Amino acid sequence: MKLVISASGGGHTGYAVALAQHLQKFSEILFIVPKNDIWSKAKVEKYGRVAYSIKPRGPRDPLLKSFPKLIYEFYEGLKIIPRDFDVFISTGSNHSVPLAYAAKLKGLKIINIESSVRFTKPSLSVRVIKPIADITVLQWPEQKKIIPEGIVVGPLFELPKYKSEDRGYILVTGGTYGHKLLFDALAQTSIRNIVLQTGKINPEKYKKIHPEWTVFDFDPNFQKWIAGASVVVSHLGKTAVDAALTYGKPVVIVPNPEWTYTAGLKDAEILARKLNALIVHDISSENIENAIEKALSRKPPKYANGAKKLVELIIDLTSQ
Q1: ∠95-100-104 over CA atoms, to 5°?
Q2: C-alpha to C-alpha distance for 196 and 208, rounded to whole angstroms
Q3: pLDDT 10s per residue in the chain (320 long)?
Q4: Which residues of 130-168 are buried (b: 16+ CB within 10 A; e: fewer)?
Q5: CATH number for region 169-295
């Protein structure tokens, strides 16, 4: 069984890893990651070969300006994707869309994964790929309301690499692109035991304001910071899911209002209920401190890892 998986950065790469961890015995995998995304490469390269294509659009970029890049990536996909592979798996993001259509043109079957943070409407990438998809994969039963033909496998989360323990710090992350509003509000607090991952936001400002904090932009072993945290404060993304379900950590979700093209506040509220997490609607230092304090007494529920069921679907699809 030969598979192409788009590892499109951030949580999308996390879905690719979660799936690959359950596929190693069954398949040969080619990952396609965005060019210059060294962190996605570092996460997936142990599970298969890696190729690169451009990522046409960021979370704040308007759609119309991305069309030339979408077309360019389609032609990249035609060059990269081998014709003798069986299945292309989209983990979401605009990065996956041209690749999915290139894969379809080359005769591969298509699996289309919806994000774990989408509840009120399908993501644009899933909507665009759905007409050519053999299977559209959902991670929560609630998502059947927005994609009735989808198949629910359960949440996709990575296997633990480290022992879960409480080392007494608060982990704060804004994902790949960072979360300036959250970070600036956090910097106004007197909390000392912070580990801050800034993503593409320069970490130096926060190092100067709080030299007692541990601050970095990226760490390929980011799971170790999740494993040791007392509480994880995250944007609306897959880190919240991994923190709760892989390591059993209390979670505070702080949606980023600057990201107008992604999942919204209602989605965050539903995910928070699924994870027994706190949510901060109005970003302020006081609200963040209060949410962290309340989260310390919460425990997330347990769910079966949907990657196992998804592997079964892939095997069935390739045997048809």
Answers
A1: 165
A2: 13
A3: 999 999 988 889 999 999 999 997 777 999 999 998 888 998 999 999 999 999 887 666 667 778 888 999 999 999 999 999 999 999 988 999 999 999 999 999 999 999 999 999 999 999 999 999 999 999 999 999 999 999 999 999 999 999 999 999 999 999 888 999 999 999 999 999 999 999 999 999 999 999 999 999 999 889 999 999 999 999 999 999 999 999 999 999 999 988 766 778 899 999 999 999 999 999 999 999 999 999 999 999 999 999 999 999 999 999 87
A4: beebebbbbbbebbeebbeebebbbbbbbeeeeeeeeee
A5: 3.40.50.2000
CATH superfamily of the domain spanning 2-156+305-319: Glycogen Phosphorylase B; (3.40.50.2000)
Residue 288: what are its φ and ψ, rounded to 5°?
-65, -45
- Judge whether 28 and 48 are in contact, CB under 8 Å: yes
Q: What is the rounded CA–CA span in Å between residue 296 and residue 101?
A: 45
The backbone torsions φ and ψ at residue 297, rounded to the nearest 5 degrees and listed phi first, read: -95, 5
Q: How many CA atoms lie within 13 A of 225 on its CB side?
A: 23
169-295 shares the fold of 2-156+305-319: yes
Phi, psi values for residue 138, rounded to 5°: -110, 150
Residues 300, 155: Cα–Cα separation, whole Å: 14
